[in-house]
Here is the input.
Amino acid sequence: MKDYRLDYPFFKNNPNTIFFDNAATALKPQCVIDAVTYYYSHLSCNAHRGDYNLSYLVDKQIAEARRDIANFIGANDNEIAFVSGTTEGMNIIANGFVSKIINEGDEILISELEHASNVLPWFKIAHQKKAEIKYVKLVNGKITPESVKESITSKTKIISLAYISNVLGYKIDAREIAKIAHENNIIFILDGAQSTPHIKVDVKDIDCDFYVFSAHKLGGPTGIGALYGKEEHLANTDPYNLGGGMNKKFGKDTNYDPYNSVRKFEAGTPNIEGIFGFKAIVNYLSEIGMDYIEERERILRDRALDGLRKLDNIIIYNDDPEAYTISFNVKDVFAQDAASLFGKYDICLRAGQHCAKLIDGVMGTYASLRCSMYFYNTIEEVDEFVKVASKGSDFLDAYF
Ligand SMILES: Cc1ncc(COP(=O)(O)O)c(C=O)c1O
Here is the structure.
């Protein structure tokens, strides 16, 4: 089996660092760095504007990137818009589509597990339209099709959920929830920020109405992501940003005509190097295979859970084989202090509320540590992490 770590310059440059903050952003393989550099060193010109060969080559790469990214999640090219990330994608759906179909008293169903970018756009629409925000009833911290069924009413117009939670790491049964949503004429939106890096996603098989994700969580560049929408929904979605590159024409009479395609969502000069890197990462992961990635992470996660379970000083909040991350605390140590102590041992973890500020009631704690692994992490790193976690009551001593 190939050693994928050799593809990541990070490990050569940080030989003693254990990077377990992959849910925040993943490390970048050389092919992504090369793709970004290739754009700047060989092409460098703008997209969709020039009539010379270099500009044509840029446009061609962007079209190919759209095709490869669409393939990666089982979509068609004309259903993928480039956005700056999950956050922008959600805001486009909320402001450009949902705001047009939601009325006073209608309900938007989310959950207390959601990231801010799948909460705040809905709060804004709810305020504007006098709509209600409702929360799915959780079963042991999980969203089940049955709990969704119980939580919808005749007023529910939208269900918007993370496919995989960024804190507890639970995956929802998106296919079944889409079915329930559509049986009740509800639009189903999936936040794919944490699922796309780890599992094979097929938006057609799931039958969600919208799906958004960020390239950087896969190991692509920051500031670029994809918005998928069913063709008929995208046709009914107004562009959020207006400007060059998204319109067919405009005149002094103040009328303007947006493109009929996904280009209407891509006003302004695109993040061209980001798109080059995005293409590189989906092709890299496709070559490795998402099944391999999922299985490899499961082995690492199980090993870490087995180790942590044996420690009296550790509280695990999602001690469950279904979780993709581990959320925990060191007893009697504030999460941020514990994270900086792990940091002293060169172990990178995330601490706090993980941008999911409604979750503390669910977890019974205000802040937690999150250990999120990716396929390039190793058993040796996991064992070292557990060893540091085992420091118990003398944990604080390590600091002084
Ligand atoms: C579940 C989830 N949704 C949305 C986001 C926002 O992603 P971005 O900051 O790339 O827009 C994140 C990022 O952590 C996330 O974990």
About this structure: Residues 19 and 348 are 5 Å apart (CA to CA). Residues 4-28+289-399 form a domain with the Aspartate Aminotransferase, domain 1 fold (CATH 3.90.1150.10). The chain has two domains: 4-28+289-399, 31-287. The mean pLDDT is 95.
